[in-house]
Amino acid sequence: MSVGERDPHTGHAMTGHEWNGIKELNTPVPKPVWFFLTATVLFSVVYWVLMPAWPLGVTYTKGLLGIDQRTRVAGDLEKAAMKRATWTGKIEDMDLSTIQADAPLMQIVREAGPALFGDNCAVCHGTDARGGKGYPNLTDTAWLWGGDPETVAETIRVGINASHDETRVSQMPALGRDQILDRNAVLNVVSYVQSLSDSALATGGQADAVAAGKEVFADNCAACHGEDGRGSIDMGAPNLTDGFWIYGGDRQSVFSTVWGGRQGTMPAWESRLTLVDRKILTLYLLDLGSVRQ
Amino acid sequence: MASLLTKNERQLALGISILLALVGLAMAGAGDDRAYAAHGILIMVFGVGTAFLTISGYHAPEPPEGRLAQYYDDPSKVGIVLAMGWAVFGMFIGDWVAWLLAYPEMTFDAAWSSFGRLRPVHTTGVIFGFGGNALIATSFHVMQRTSRARMPDQLSPWFVLLGYNLFCILAVSGYFMGLTQSKEYAEPEWYADIWLVIVWVTYLVLYLRTLARRQEPHIYVANWYYLAFILVVAVLHIVNNLAMPISLTQAKSYSAFAGVQDAMTQWWYGHNAVAFFLTAGFLGMLYYYLPKRAGRPIYSYRMSILGFWGITFFYMWAGSHHLHYTALPQWVQTLGMTFSVMLLVPSWLAAANALLTLNGAWHKVRDDATLRFMMVAALFYGLSTFEGSFMAIRPVNSLSHYTDWTVGHVHAGALGWVALITFGSIYAVVPWLWKRQGMYSAKLVEAHFWLALVGTLIYVFAMWNSGIIQGLMWRTYNESGTLAYSFIDSLIAMHPYYVARAIGGLFFLIGAVIGSYNIWMTVRATREDSREPIADRPVPAVARDRALQSGE
Ligand code: HEM
Questions:
Q1: Domains in chain A and their CATH numbers?
Q2: Which of A52, A84, A122 sits opposite B488 (nearest CB)?
Q3: Which residues contact A219 (CB under 8 A, 6 or more apart)?
Q4: Which of A81, A121, A84, A45 is CA-nearest to residue A273?
Q5: pTM higher than the cut 0.80
Q6: Shortest Cα distance from A28 to chain B (angstroms)?
Q7: Which residue in A93, A129, A173, B177 is deepest, having the highest Cβ count within 10 Å?
Q8: Contacts of B62 (CB under 8 A, 6+ apart)
Q9: A window 96-135, beta carbon within 8 A of B
Q10: What homologous superfamily is domain B75-529 in, according to CATH?
Q11: What percent of chain B stands above pLDDT 90?
């Protein structure tokens, strides 16, 4: 093909190159392209002049506007903290029970609580705080360690079986696996435990087992769960009579608990959440519980 | 296969296979961890396999001299079949991952099927398995045609193709076993990385040797792009994977970089992987198969030049836009942002050059789904590069980063651009390679086109929505100045979009399955193209019959 040939369709000149049938037109680059290319380059140059941009050995050009992302973030955080300061100070200083009586502050607790709980606690306790197998419901009246505001706040601060120095410690021993009780005794005490919240069992076909289990209970369990099975807040041992279960109240689950033991871990939050956040969470949970009841 | 190699090549192939098998055996024997030993066995089996393939044709007579008067296309054929196999596999895993995000329990409680392992299986499967094989196969085809020269030997293309697939298999099987360097798109461990270096350098040398034999005075644009792809990927791969193995008998290694330097190296790599693997290589495809299929000259040689140098120069600096608002010094972020903005015009030039090339062939675009694949690909290329430059602007990025918007952007490029241009090119090249009149079924190509397009649109729209909702939810505050939504709230809001995305992905996957079937039936069809493929010969072939363009 000769140079100077034109494409019949567009009328543009050809370059004269050809590869396996592919030819090229020598169409000039359209003017708007140069315009936009120049515009983006100019934009960049202006941006470089105004902002931190080019390295100069160990330092860099700081930019005429003097903007620095670190000071900016610090400033933004400070501003946000100022905005919240109208109420954070109060929550920090006031007693939990006084705050409970302060409607505007409780309004803020209800606003801030869900996101705080959703981001930190919901993975274990569920978005609605009603728990799941192995993780207690935090909206009911059954508390392992006590349900008054100060106690709940303390549980959140130090955790349960956690790495905190003052952590609460509790353990349900593996009475079956560790051969303290034989299989029969375990089965009987399971019947007895179930009968505590389901009185029909004590008179039905399992009456004998329940009676035998009662003795096992008195000898092996009462130290922690109390003579009447109502639990002990000092030990973190749950009330077994209230029909609320952490690990499930069906026969198989209760058997697994008594045979293999349990030791739930609740992380300590003192080093991860501020005092204000922990107070909000405490109040939020108690508020949820009181609404649900 | 082996009978087409010369005697010397057969000896060399056998030698390499045995060496590979021995290395595998040593790794399996000495390996201190099970995954590493398992990889040793895998390498050994691969080596024994290629040794058997070689032996099967070892005593056949020398291949006829006549072969030198024809292009060497067998590796391209195998590469295309492999690419389609990886496409179906990688997209199947992609769709599984998509369902997993909507229904997390779909891991069925097994470690190998957890999200963290399946996700890199997907990305590696589609990018390197599907995209990489398609690039290798088409680059062999294009470099010979546009140089009018046969490849200099017959062994190195096989070494490149099979060696590359060994790398992909090592990568993917490693993730299933929990092996990873934790660098996105560079997850494979040190021994797989070293193997890829050997393969890749062979690829580069092969490409340069073929170009050196060319019978054309000029080097065609497609070759500039393929070459940039091969060269830059070599540099990126070597630098980002610099690492010290904890021992020669264990899989684990430690990166040479740490902290913010590590992050910057990784995203310099990561972004240029997008630029030179997922863009430059595929632009090479576009620049050959689109004008060929349309039967039109490239619209502007000058736009090709400006586009090519703009893209290669500006991209190199853009990586830091992946690290906006992080510990990375702000000046580096500024450079990443501004170079990304300047990148827009050259990128659009490449897309515009392709679309303007279709001037005078729009009736073909309407009737021919293969050409339409390529046309829509160029549109999506333009769309994603615009979006990319936009998202690189810091304030925009503060909304889009860490959200599904990014994932939507990636897939506008990955599905709309990379996969569509590949399918288009494959539909064009398969009948040429196997000397058929056309694809087995034009209707199925049409069906694949619409499934792919609808799937892409569903995917991208779902992610735009969910990404923007996510971004807004994360930055919404209450009156009191506390966060309005928890992260879990935003996940719950994403659920319907995740289901939509997974359905879109399913469309796309079904399209790929149909495509594979169509290709397989075309390959198996017995009716040879009756036309004499006389034009498809390296020099010294006689003057070509230009009317036969579409048969090449
Ligand atoms: C059937 C089609 C596909 C489906 C359903 C699909 C689905 C997915 C999903 C669910 C993710 C994870 C997103 C997340 O972590 O939130 C992902 C990531 C990714 N996919 Fe795909 N994908 C498909 C095809 C492709 C193709 C063809 C390519 C490239 C050629 C590709 C490249 C990528 C990349 C690069 C990522 C990582 C994105 C990032 O880190 O932001 N995908 N894909």
A1: 14-60 (no CATH), 72-143+276-292 (1.10.760.10), 183-260 (1.10.760.10)
A2: A122
A3: none
A4: A121
A5: yes
A6: 6
A7: A129
A8: B6, B7
A9: 108, 111-112, 114-119, 122, 127
A10: Cytochrome c oxidase-like, subunit I domain (1.20.210.10)
A11: 89
